[in-house]
C-alpha cells in the first residue's frame, strides 16, 4: 500500500534536513563547513521556528559537535549531526569512540576533498579516510536517496541488534547543493516507521553505569569483536529496514543497486552520483549494442560482498571508480575492497581502478564512455592495460 | 557551610580505585560526592581519575559516569545537559539531573580549553571541576599550562641550562569569568568545608560554574604521600594558591592570609622545585616568589581586600 | 599468592558474548571487589581512646578507608594504602603509622 506523498524541490542538504525533521530528532550538535552548511542551517531554522522540538547545539568545533552527540546519545536521545572534509577529519577520533560506545548517531556527510591543498568541492576522500571507524556507511546517488536513507538510517542505527552510528554520504555540491524533485513522505508515516527511541542501556542516573572505562589488553579485544558482530548483524537489519521502507514508500532499497547487469560483459562500479552518469552512458552504449552495466553499492560498510558477487554475475571486466586516492596503496579504497572480495569468492574478473573527480573535478559522460570502452577492450583481450588510471588529470 | 558529621557516610566514590597512595584527587572526588543533591552524571576526561577509577570491569563510581575522550569533557557535558533538557521538554524524561564535568589541568587548561570555552559561552547548566595537579601527571609528569614557573617536569626538566618550566601558570578563573559566567571559584582540599560548599553552590547555579581545585600529587610533585593535605594547606597559607570565588560580578576572598608562611617552605617540600635551590638558579626562586606576590595582589585587589 | 585483578579462584574473564556491549560497566562500585589494602608498606594504627571523632581523617582519606563508628573511627584495612594522610592530619595525633609485617 503506497501512502500519500508530496513532491518538494530540495537540494541534498535540504532533503537530509527535512528527513531529520520528520524523524523527531532530539538533539543536533553541529559545526558548519562547506558544503554541509545548508544542512544544519535548515535544521536550525526548523528548531528556531518551532517546527521541530529539539536542542540545536552550535558546537565550537566538529570534534566538540561529535562529543556532544555522543554524550546526548548515551542519555537515550535521538541525535543527528552533519559535517564534511576537514570537519570529519577533525572528529576522526570521535568517530571511533561513537561506534565503540555503540551510539546510534546518524550523520550526514557532504563529501568534500581533504586539504591540502584546500578545496571545498566534492570527492570521497573524507569518508574514505575514516572508513575503518566502525560506522555503517551509506552513499546516495541523488537527493531522493539521501532523504530515504536518512530516514532508514535512524531505524538501522537504533536496532538493538546493531546499535551503531550511520553516515549518509552525499557528494559535495553535486548533490548537496543541486535541487531535485524529491518525493517526501507524510510526517505521520515517518513517525509510524520510526517509533520514539526505546533506550536500551543509558546513563540513567537512577540506575548508574560507567561508560568509557579503560579496557586493558584483557578486555579490549572482546569489546571490539562485539562491534564486528554488530556490523555483521547490520546486513540483515539493513535489508529488513529496506523491505519495510519499500512497503511504506514504494521505493526499493538494498545493499547494492544494479543497472543493466543481466548479461553485461563489462561494467563500472562506483559510489554516489557518478553512478547516475554511468547509467546514462550505459543506456547509450546498450543502444549501440554493447553489453555494459553499472553496479552501485548503496552500503559501503559493512561491505556487501555477497550482494556484489551476485550483482557482478558473469561480467568479464570491471572498472572500479574511486573518488578518493589511497596514496601509496596498490589500489584505492573501493577497488581494494572489490579485489579482496573477488579473491575471497574465487571469482575471476579483470579489474582495473580509475581514480577520478578529486577535488570536485567533473567526470563527463565522454570520460565514462572511455572507461566503458576500456573495460570492454579488457573483457575482449583478457588483458588489463593499466591497473590504476587517473581519469581527467592534465599532463 | 556544612558540618562534617552531617555529610552523608555513603561513599558514592568507593574504595578499590588505583590512584596512588596519598593522591589528593581521590580525596577531592570523595568530597565532591558528598556535595551532590540529586541524580548526577559525572563526565570525566582521560587522566589520573579516569584511568585509575574505571579499569574494566571495576568502577569506583556509584553514580552515572561517562568518559569519552581527553579534550572534550565540557562538550560531552554540554550534550548530556542539552539532551536531558529536550527529553524532559518532550515528556520522555521526568527527572532533574545535575551534570558535573571533571577534568585535570591538562583536560582543562590546554587540550580541553576549547571545549570548555564553547560550553561556557553557550551557557549550559553544568558544573566544571578542574582538579589541578599542575602537570600531565597521568602520562608521566609532563608540563601543562598549569605548571608553575620553575617546576621540573619531564618535558621541562631541571636542566643545567634551563631550570624547569620557563613559562607561567594560566589564569583559568579569569578566562572562565571572561565568558560571562555567574560563578567561578578556586579551592583547596585542605579546606574541605569551603570546597564542599563551593560544589554545592556550583550545582545550584543555573548555568555554567567552574571550580579550580588544587590537587597535590606525591608522585609528580615529589613529596611524602602523607603530606598531600598539608601541602594543599601550605599552598593557601603561603598565598601561592589564593582561595576566592566570583559570584555574579562580586569577587570574594574566602580564605584570608594576613601572615603568609614563607614561600620557600612550600617549595622546599616538593622535589620538583629542588633544583631551584642551587645558587646559580637563585634568580628563578625570586621570579617565582614575585609571581606569587603579583598574583596575590591581583586577586586580593579584585576581592576588595587591602593589599 | 594473590590472583591478579581481584578475581576469585572460580571467576574467569567473560567472553564477547557475555560482556555488556561497548565496554559498559553495569555494576556501580565494582571497584570494591579489588582490595587495595595489600599496597601498604605502613599501616595506620588508631588509639581509639584518644580519638575525638572529629572526622578529619575520614574526609581527607583518598581511599575512603576510614570507617565512621558511633563515637570514634576505625580503619578499613582491606583498602587502606598506608599513605599516612590520616596520621598527618589527626589533630590529637592518635594515629601512628606502623610498618607492615613488623611488630
Report on the structure:
The complex is a heterotrimer of chains A (about 400), B (about 300) and C (about 100). Chain A has about 400 residues and is α/β, with parallel strands linked by helices. Chain A folds into 2 domains: about 5-250, Rossmann fold, CATH 3.40.50; about 255-390, Rossmann fold. Helices cover about 40% and strands about 20% of the residues of chain A. In chain A, strands 3-2-4-5-7-6-13 form a 7-stranded mixed beta sheet, with helices on both faces. Chain A has a 6-stranded mixed beta sheet with strand order 10-12-11-14-15-16, sandwiched between helices. In chain A, helix 7 links the parallel strand 6 and strand 7 (about 165-170). The longest helix of chain A has 30 residues, at about 220-250. The N and C termini of chain A lie far apart (about 55 Å). Chain B has one domain (about 5-300): 3-Layer(aba) Sandwich (Rossmann fold). Chain B has helices at about 25-35, 50-55, 75-90, 105-110, 115-120, 170-175, 190-205, 220, 230-235, 265-270, 280-300, and strands spanning about 40-45, 65, 100-105, 125-130, 185, 210-215, 245, 250-255. The mean pLDDT of chain B is about 95. With about 100 residues, chain C is mainly beta. Chain C is built from 2 helices and 4 strands; from the N terminus they run E-H-E-E-H-E. Chain C has helices spanning about 55-60, 85-90, and strands at about 40-45, 65-70, 75, 95-100. In chain C, strand 2 and strand 3 (about 75) form a beta hairpin. Chain C is elongated. The mean pLDDT of chain C is about 90. Chains in contact: A-B, A-C, B-C. At the A-B interface, strand 3, helix 3, helix 5 and strand 9 of A face strand 1, strand 2, helix 3 and helix 5 of B. Strand 9 (about 210) of chain A pairs parallel with strand 2 (about 65) of chain B, so a sheet runs across the interface.
Amino acid at each position: 500500500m503506497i501512502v500519500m506523498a508530496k513532491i518538494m524541490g530540495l537540494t541534498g542538504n535540504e532533503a537530509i534536513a527535512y528527513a531529520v525533521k520528520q524523524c523527531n530528532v532530539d538533539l543536533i550538535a553541529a559545526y558548519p563547513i562547506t558544503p554541509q552548511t545548508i544542512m544544519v542551517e535548515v535544521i536550525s531554522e526548523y528548531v528556531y521556528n518551532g517546527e521541530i522540538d529539539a536542542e540545536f547545539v552550535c558546537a565550537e568545533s566538529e570534534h566538540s559537535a561529535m562529543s556532544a552527540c555522543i554524550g546526548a546519545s548515551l542519555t537515550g536521545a535521538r541525535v543527528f549531526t552533519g559535517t564534511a572534509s576537514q570537519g570529519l577529519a577533525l572528529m576522526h577520533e570521535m568517530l571511533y569512540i561513537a561506534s565503540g560506545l555503540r551510539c546510534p548517531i546518524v550523520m550526514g556527510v557532504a563529501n568534500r576533498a581533504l586539504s591540502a591543498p584546500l578545496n571545498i568541492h566534492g570527492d570521497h576522500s573524507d569518508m574514505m579516510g575514516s572508513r575503518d571507524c566502525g560506522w555503517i556507511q551509506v552513499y546516495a546517488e541523488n537527493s531522493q536517496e539521501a532523504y530515504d536513507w536518512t530516514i532508514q538510517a535512524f531505524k538501522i542505527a537504533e536496532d538493538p541488534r546493531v546499535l551503531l552510528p550511520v553516515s549518509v554520504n552525499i557528494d559535495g555540491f553535486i548533490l548537496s547543493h543541486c535541487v531535485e524533485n524529491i518525493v517526501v513522505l507524510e510526517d505521520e508515516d515517518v513517525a509510524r516507521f520510526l517509533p520514539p527511541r526505546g533506550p536500551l542501556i543509558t546513563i540513567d542516573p537512577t540506575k548508574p553505569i560507567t561508560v568509557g572505562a579503560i579496557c586493558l589488553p584483557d578486555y579490549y579485544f572482546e569489546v571490539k569483536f562485539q562491534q564486528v558482530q554488530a556490523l555483521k548483524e547490520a546486513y540483515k537489519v539493513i535489508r529488513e529496514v529496506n523491505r519495510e521502507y519499500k512497503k511504506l514508500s514504494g521505493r526499493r532499497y538494498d545493499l547494492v543497486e544494479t543497472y543493466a547487469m543481466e548479461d553485461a560483459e563489462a561494467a563500472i562500479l562506483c559510489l554516489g552520483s557518478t553512478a547516475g552518469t554511468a547509467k546514462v552512458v550505459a543506456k547509450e552504449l546498450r543502444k549501440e549494442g554493447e553489453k555494459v552495466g553499472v553496479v552501485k553499492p548503496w552500503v559501503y560498510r559493512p561491505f556487501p560482498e555477497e550482494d556484489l558477487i551476485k550483482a557482478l554475475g558473469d561480467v568479464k571486466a570491471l572498472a572500479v571508480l574511486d573518488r578518493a586516492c589511497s596514496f601509496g596503496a596498490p589500489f584505492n579504497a573501493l577497488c581494494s575492497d572489490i579485489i579482496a572480495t573477488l579473491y575471497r569468492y574465487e571469482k575471476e574478473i579483470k579489474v582495473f581502478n580509475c581514480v577520478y573527480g578529486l577535488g570536485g573535478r567533473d567526470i563527463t559522460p565522454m570520460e565514462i564512455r572511455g572507461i566503458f570502452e576500456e573495460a570492454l577492450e579488457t573483457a575482449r583481450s583478457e588483458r588489463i592495460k593499466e591497473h590504476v588510471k587517473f581519469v581527467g588529470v592534465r599532463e | 557551610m556544612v558540618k562534617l558529621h552531617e555529610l552523608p557516610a555513603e561513599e558514592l566514590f568507593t574504595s578499590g580505585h588505583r590512584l596512588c597512595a596519598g593522591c589528593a584527587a581521590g580525596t577531592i572526588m570523595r568530597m565532591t560526592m558528598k556535595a551532590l543533591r540529586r541524580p548526577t552524571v559525572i563526565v570525566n576526561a582521560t587522566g589520573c581519575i579516569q584511568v585509575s577509577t574505571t579499569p574494566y570491569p571495576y568502577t569506583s563510581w556509584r553514580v552515572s559516569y561517562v568518559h569519552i575522550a581527553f579534550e572534550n569533557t565540557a562538550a560531552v557535558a554540554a550534550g548530556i545537559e542539552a539532551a536531558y533538557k529536550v527529553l524532559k521538554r518532550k515528556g520522555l524524561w521526568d527527572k532533574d539531573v545535575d551534570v558535573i564535568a571533571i577534568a585535570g589541568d591538562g583536560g582543562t587548561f590546554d587540550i580541553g580549553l576549547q571545549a570548555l570555552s564553547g560550553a561556557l559561552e553557550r551557557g549550559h547548566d553544568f558544573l566544571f571541576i578542574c582538579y589541578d595537579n599542575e602537570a600531565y601527571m597521568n602520562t608521566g609528569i609532563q608540563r601543562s599550562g598549569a605548571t608553575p614557573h620553575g617546576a621540573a617536569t619531564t618535558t621541562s626538566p631541571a636542566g643545567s641550562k634551563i631550570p624547569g618550566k620557563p613559562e607561567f601558570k594560566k589564569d583559568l578563573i579569569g578566562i572562565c569569568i571572561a565568558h560571562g559566567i555567574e560563578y567561578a571559584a578556586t579551592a583547596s582540599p585542605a579546606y574541605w568545608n569551603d570546597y564542599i560548599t563551593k560544589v554545592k553552590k556550583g550545582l545550584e547555579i543555573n548555568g555554567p560554574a567552574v571550580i579550580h581545585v588544587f590537587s597535590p600529587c606525591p608522585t609528580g610533585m615529589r613529596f611524602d604521600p602523607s603530606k598531600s593535605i598539608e601541602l594543599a594547606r601550605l599552598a593557601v597559607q603561603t598565598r601561592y594558591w589564593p582561595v576566592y570565588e566570583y559570584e555574579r560580578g562580586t569577587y570574594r576572598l574566602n580564605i584570608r592570609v594576613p601572615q603568609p608562611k614563607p614561600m620557600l617552605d612550600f617549595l622546599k617540600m616538593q622535589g620538583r622545585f629542588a633544583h631551584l635551590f642551587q645558587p646559580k638558579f637563585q634568580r628563578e626562586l625570586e621570579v617565582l616568589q614575585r609571581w606569587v606576590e603579583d598574583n596575590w595582589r591581583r586577586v586580593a585587589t579584585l576581592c576588595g581586600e587591602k593589599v | 599468592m594473590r590472583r591478579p585483578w581481584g578475581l576469585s579462584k572460580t571467576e574467569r574473564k567473560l567472553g564477547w558474548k557475555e560482556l555488556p556491549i561497548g565496554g559498559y560497566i553495569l555494576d556501580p562500585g565494582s571497584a570494591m571487589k579489588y582490595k587495595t589494602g595489600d599496597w601498604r608498606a605502613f599501616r595506620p594504627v588508631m588509639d581509639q581512646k584518644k580519638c575525638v571523632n572529629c572526622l578529619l581523617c575520614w574526609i581527607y582519606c583518598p581511599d575512603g578507608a576510614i570507617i565512621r563508628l558511633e563515637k570514634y573511627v576505625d580503619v578499613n584495612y582491606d583498602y587502606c594504602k598506608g599513605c599516612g594522610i590520616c596520621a598527618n592530619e589527626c589533630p590529637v595525633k592518635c594515629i601512628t603509622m606502623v610498618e607492615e609485617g613488623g611488630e
